[in-house]
């Protein structure tokens, strides 16, 4: 699969200085963690789950979570498990296999037709049980999302994942979710995150990324952010994000990719504040109608929040609607200016400072190196925009599918 693959080749050549590179579910986890992009959550109870997965992939979704936890009622767990197993088996029956195409078979699905798939479980024992029930269809599962993750509860999940992987020969990756009350409460947070860091270090090869459960974190104080504010305006949750990045997202080789918390709005309501998208960039690109559509769908708040995610060291985002994907992915493309800065920094050994190629900032080889390395990993899977190409043009191309 490849981000922006739906765009006409000639148009894509005009948009990108360096094209996004293909990736597959078998790639190095370091690549996949960045390639996740907008991860779409879907309840496992959906009657058309198999078709929904394929439709999502064809709308640009590269990673998807089939949820057996908070997205479904407690009484529906058995039904949801059965539905998820049946859906993934159906997908596997129509799958051409890794790296293969079957253009003559109308049922044939390519790798690009199925996103990276994860299952969010609510109990450790579900991991082995679901893999056994899936049989060969477990090949489609890249890993499991581990909810309410703490050092005390998380060990059982990771042990179950290790045991199942060893028993089946599958590569199963973990995405623990920081969303417990121990994380939100100030007096327990630091010790809890340090304990989690020590536990994850023991299973490092299994940990794909660390996710943030903003809904649960907010719920501890009876809070819910409105669509015209970002999660960074909700100070108790913003403090958690800061500490998670501080302890679990370090750039010294001990950290992990930390993904942005869920954006949960997809329809407009009455607005209290002005739209968060400036008019001028859209006017310059003659894309004012696009700006109006984004505002009407409350996506201007999402765009603002993704900017803040990136500024705070988060990569990718949890979303609950396919309409969110284009904005997250367009903002994930590396700008030409960023790429030039990173390339200049990585060419230097021994430190020192230099003016940027755009002559508008100072690049320091040592302090900015970790930033440059991270940026180049994002450039690999999301590409580098051509000189002069803006987020507006990328977004317009992405939503014009």
UniProtKB/TrEMBL annotation:
UniProt feature coiled coil, ranges: none
Domain of life the protein comes from: Bacteria
One GO MF term attached to the UniProt entry: catalytic activity
InterPro entries linked: C-C_Bond_Lyase-like, Pyrv/PenolPyrv_kinase-like_dom, Pyrv_kinase-like_dom_sf
Pfam families: C-C_Bond_Lyase
Keywords: Magnesium, Metal-binding
GO biological process per UniProt: oxaloacetate metabolic process
Requisite cofactors: Mg(2+)
Keyword field contains Magnesium: yes
PANTHER family: CITRATE LYASE SUBUNIT BETA (PTHR32308:SF10), LYASE BETA SUBUNIT, PUTATIVE (AFU_ORTHOLOGUE AFUA_4G13030)-RELATED (PTHR32308)
Name assigned to this protein: ATP/GTP-binding protein
Provenance organism: Actinomadura rubrobrunea
Higher taxonomy: Bacteria, Bacillati, Actinomycetota, Actinomycetes, Streptosporangiales
